[in-house]
Amino acid sequence: MGAIGLTELILIFFVILLPLIALISILTNKFRGSEKLVWVIVVILIPLAGSILYFIFGTKNRIKKG
């Protein structure tokens, strides 16, 4: 007892780190109109599914730099 196993590490990644990475990505990139706000709300309300949806669909809608 007390040791963190592989199952716990995977759970931590998907429940905490993936939504955090998604939020950082959303906040550091530019989007059209209110898309940024929509993605932030989606990731905050449904963290796991929202993060996965953002990485599948949201990254394509970012405004390219340069």
How do the helices and strands line up, and which of them pair or pack?
Elements: H1 6-28, H2 35-45, H3 47-57
Rg to the nearest angstrom?
14 Å
What average pLDDT do the residues reach?
90
- Whole-Å distance between the termini? 52 Å
Runs with pLDDT <50, length 5+? none
In total, the number of domains comes to: 1
Structural class: mainly alpha
Number of strands: 0
Spell out the helices and strands N to C: HHH
Q: Based on CA inertia axes, which overall geometry fits?
A: elongated
Main sheet attributes: strand count, strand direction, barrel closure:
none
| Number of discrete helical segments | 3
Helix content: 55-70%
β-strand amount: under 5%
Notes on the structure:
The protein is mainly alpha-helical and 66 residues long. The chain has one domain. α1 packs across α3 and α2 runs antiparallel to α3.
